[in-house]
Amino acid sequence: MTCSEEAKAQFAEIELLLSMFPSEEELQVDELSHAELRAYVEGTAHNPPSIRPQFSIKLKIENPAVSITLLCTCPTDYPKVLPDIAVRCSVLTRSQQMMLHSNLNTYLSENCIGDVCILSAVQWINDHAQAYITKSVPVSDPKKEEVLMQSKEIFTRLWIYSHHIYNKIKRKNILEWAKELNLSGFSMPGKPGIVCVEGLQSACNEFWARVKVLTWKRIMIRHREDVPLDNWTEERTDSLRKFTGFHEAIFDTHGTRGNHMDLGQLYQFLSDKGCSNIFQMYFGIEGR
């Protein structure tokens, strides 16, 4: 099978991005999908890539100084169709991010169909993001906010199941987003992939909103725990946490690809945290 023009265009664009953003802090390309795309374009592989090219670009916006991350996934037919681009910025509300994303897509639809457009998206963000960021810092009354927070906060723990978690960019995003949102818990990569986050409900919901839009074979919330906080304090939140900080949990691996974690060790880990009942929810069997 000859290489498609779309694959050649995708590969050439990624190579250009790598030359323009040499630092891993600026550009992170999924190594497996990039290697498969390279082999297909160079003719050493006869089948199209099994994984869509994925990468993230971190942009630094000035006045005010904030970071915006573009999470990009290229469909097989790109650039005949638009790439999937998710925009993430910690100072923007979810609705503001959605508006920014919608306006970016409108611009790309009107100007870039048929051409590679990641650099056009980067330039548009650099030119227009400041307006959205400025709107995201309203003048407020701290005392009113404190009263509102105390009356409405809920402590939440999400147990997330994924068919697998291999991708290095996704694993890095999970770690960074949990820490950014002050969530504790853990992420277990491999097959299956398991993520637990706990903290204020608004932060857990934001974490799930970010994670679920990434490209997954299958991902879902397996179990959710909510505890109303009548008189919210940070100490009260911390007292409900079962985990200290957020980290990636790695256990002994097995299987032909070395991608299955030792479930016995996972069960012991959950038991030590007082969560042994979760094991049966995930796997339908009692741990031992």
Automatic annotation (TrEMBL):
InterPro entries hit by this protein: Phi-like, Prp3_C, RWD_dom, RWDD2A-B_C, UBQ-conjugating_enzyme/RWD
Family annotation (Pfam families): Prp3_C, RWD
Taxonomy, superkingdom: Eukaryota
Gene3D superfamilies in UniProt: Ubiquitin Conjugating Enzyme
CDD domains: RWD_RWDD2, RWDD2_C
Segments crossing the lipid bilayer: none
SMART domains (alphabetical): RWD (SM00591)
Domain RWD, first and last residues per copy: 12-132
UniProt-recorded name of the protein: RWD domain-containing protein
Protein source organism: Sinocyclocheilus grahami
